[in-house]
């Protein structure tokens, strides 16, 4: 069994209100020196077989149609180690 990871983030030009809220709260909690926070999503997908090129491409299709909104989000797909 293999695991593939999909990481989804808002595109840089899209505002991230949740990340901004976290960033504003950090100094109040004693975490100084953080310039900005962007919040994203991580999906770990276990495959029934090997993570060969065809399987990773299918996960890439899945990410682009279901896990991410390609209009406002970018995503990366990689095989977990």
TrEMBL record:
Tell where it localizes: Cytoplasm
Q: Which EC class does it fall in?
A: ligase
- Known catalysed reaction(s)? N(2)-formyl-N(1)-(5-phospho-beta-D-ribosyl)glycinamide + L-glutamine + ATP + H2O = 2-formamido-N(1)-(5-O-phospho-beta-D-ribosyl)acetamidine + L-glutamate + ADP + phosphate + H(+)
Enzyme Commission number, as recorded: 6.3.5.3
Which pathway does it take part in? Purine metabolism; IMP biosynthesis via de novo pathway; 5-amino-1-(5-phospho-D-ribosyl)imidazole from N(2)-formyl-N(1)-(5-phospho-D-ribosyl)glycinamide: step 1/2
What are the protein's UniProt keywords? ATP-binding, Cytoplasm, Ligase, Nucleotide-binding, Purine biosynthesis
PANTHER family hit by this protein: PHOSPHORIBOSYLFORMYLGLYCINAMIDINE SYNTHASE SUBUNIT PURS
Subunit-level organization: Part of the FGAM synthase complex composed of 1 PurL, 1 PurQ and 2 PurS subunits.
| Family from the record | Belongs to the PurS family.
Q: What does this protein's UniProt record list under function?
A: Part of the phosphoribosylformylglycinamidine synthase complex involved in the purines biosynthetic pathway. Catalyzes the ATP-dependent conversion of formylglycinamide ribonucleotide (FGAR) and glutamine to yield formylglycinamidine ribonucleotide (FGAM) and glutamate. The FGAM synthase complex is composed of three subunits. PurQ produces an ammonia molecule by converting glutamine to glutamate. PurL transfers the ammonia molecule to FGAR to form FGAM in an ATP-dependent manner.
Q: What is this protein called?
A: Phosphoribosylformylglycinamidine synthase subunit PurS
Q: Which organism is it from?
A: Actinocorallia libanotica
Its taxonomic path starts at: Bacteria, Bacillati, Actinomycetota, Actinomycetes, Streptosporangiales
Q: Which gene encodes it?
A: purS
